[in-house]
Automatic annotation (TrEMBL):
Pfam families: Nitroreductase. It comes from the Bacteria. NCBIfam families: Rv3131_FMN_oxido (NF047509). It comes from Actinoplanes campanulatus. This is Nitroreductase.
């Protein structure tokens, strides 16, 4: 086996690890092309939510999360690498530079890839430690974004925005029809959200979770969100490259949360609807572009965990070329 072949195989493994990245409605809207000297990331617009996400913001964040997953895998294997971000396709190019002894911290982060998941159950009464929250804000900043932790008054305002966004999206018949193709059922096609990951009933929380229009089988528990921390991921830019970086930052925070035993639930509704996204920006004091709202808490583990979401087969998302 030549050195080029070995490097290509390692890049292919990194692309394979990226299959487990989070994506909006588990659409997995990415494709990797592996060469002996580089790894290229492309968006798959056929899996774009055209009515919910016409500007491709959530698609780009999903691809950014996959990019971060691949980079974590390379870090854990000791590969120093650089990332190019072309103005057009591909979205990103990863080039390995040299291989060193892997940092144990990078290996620990890699271990979180298979453990990370979306937890839509209610949270316990145990708050997240302040030092742990500081680690999350640091992870976001290191990846090129910011994480604003909301005050109690801001959470009340957020609850109103979430409700308004939900009403706007529920009234859109085309959007609802689109959602129904990705949510519910047993998801034998390897994409979407299965019944076992969807709440069996709405949780009694201040900030409502997304109403998918489908009743699942996941018991949500009797908890509330009184001990939960809500945060807004934001940045200074609103270009496609900024949304890609936002996905990397989200993934960095999510993996850090997983390592600390904290459940993260994304709430994208307020940034998908124009007027609620604008008001969310005002809530931040106009200092940046809001990318996503996150709920951070210690999960109530008294009930069963969510069913794992399916994944597309590796041959459908990774192409190897000479």
């Amino acid at each position: 086996m030549t050195a080029d072949t070995q490097t290509r195989d390692l890049l292919a493994q990194a692309a394979g690890a990226a299959r487990y990245a989070p994506s909006v409605h588990n659409t997995q809207p990415w494709r990797w092309v592996v060469y002996p000297d580089r790894l290229e990331l492309f968006a798959v617009t056929e899996r774009q939510l055209r009515f919910q996400d016409p500007d491709q913001h959530m698609l780009l964040m999903s691809c950014g999360a996959a990019l971060h997953h691949a980079r974590v895998a390379l870090d854990a294997d000791g590969w120093v690498h650089e990332v190019e971000r072309p103005a057009a396709e591909p979205l990103a190019i990863i080039r390995p530079l040299e291989r060193r002894t892997a940092d144990p911290a990078a290996v620990r982060v890699l271990d979180q890839l298979s453990r990370r998941h979306t937890d839509r159950r209610t949270m316990s009464d145990e708050p997240v430690d302040v030092k742990v929250l500081d680690a999350f804000t640091a992870a976001a900043e290191q990846a090129g974004a910011r994480l604003c932790l909301l005050s109690r008054d801001q959470v009340i305002e957020l609850a109103v925005l979430v409700e308004q966004a939900q009403k706007a999206e529920t009234s859109d018949d085309l959007l609802q029809a689109e959602t129904s193709t990705w949510v519910g059922g047993d998801r034998a096609d390897g994409t979407g959200i299965p019944d076992g990951s969807l709440p069996a009933e709405p949780a009694q929380t201040t900030v409502a979770g997304r109403d998918f229009g489908v009743t699942g089988t996941l018991p949500v528990g009797a908890g509330h969100d009184s001990a939960v921390t809500y945060a807004v991921l934001y940045g200074t830019g609103d270009e496609p490259a900024d949304w890609l970086r936002a996905g990397e930052a989200l993934n960095a925070v999510w993996l850090a949360a997983t390592e600390h035993g904290v459940a993260l639930t994304p709430l994208s509704g307020p940034v998908e609807v124009g007027f609620t996204r604008q008001r969310l920006g005002h809530m931040l004091g106009g200092v940046g572009t809001p990318y996503l709202v996150t709920r951070l808490g210690i999960a109530d583990t008294s009930g069963p965990a969510a069913e794992p979401t399916p994944r597309l087969p590796v041959e459908q998302v990774v192409e190897i070329r000479d």
